[in-house]
Amino acid sequence: MALENDYEILERLGEGAFGTVYKARHRRSDDVCAIKQIKIGAKSWDEALRSTELQALKALRHPFIVRLRELIRSALDGSLYYIFEFITSDLFRLLRQYPHGMEELRALELTRQLFAGVAHIHQHNFFHRDIKPENVLYDTAHETVRIADFGEARSLRARPPFTDYVGTRWYRAPECLLRDRTYSSPVDVWASGLVFAELQRGSAVFCGTSSIDQLYKIFQVLGAPIGDWPDFKRLAEACRFRMPAGT
Questions:
Q1: pLDDT digits over 122-133, tens only?
Q2: Does 224 fall in a domain?
Q3: Is the pTM above the cut of 0.85?
Q4: Which entry of 130, 149, 164, 188 is annotated as an active-site residue?
């Protein structure tokens, strides 16, 4: 199947570190879809097919996770294209309509869906590592979410160390901010909890300007984790982090 023959590109939706996303139409069925062009770079075709992102997308089938429809290799340039269902919006854009937060029951329902999707990811031995409002698509017609963008995903069977500079700072778990490279699936739970709070507040909870500032803002609200986090002292000393006064 040739991408150029079967799909008409309608518009460019965005570009990230791992690829460019387009809105497209299937020429025969007239269905609208999203197409992600993957930046293979120096990777071979076989390496691209073994990527964790693709393995996760193929393995995960859930109402609240974006669905991969097919995989296409372009006949023109050899690029790899993921064909997804098209979802109209995301939680980032939805939140713009609620600068002071949305109604509690609605926030709870969207969060229930988000955590159900996250649980499914973890049950299938993956973790996402970049949960944030922009990566949670929102179907306006059915008021349901889809977790998307698995470019940072890793297998729970993989052995650390992992990179500590992962995810978006405002949603990055404290262990990553403290440069712990043995973290795991709880980083998704932390980020999902912050998305829940943001749905109710209308704005992000911890808006640090750096990793250290992010930690300060977290601990000023939640207090010192020394008693229930045995590794905290070691991690803090390793990156020369000092608790803010009053915590």
A1: 999 999 999 999
A2: yes
A3: yes
A4: 130
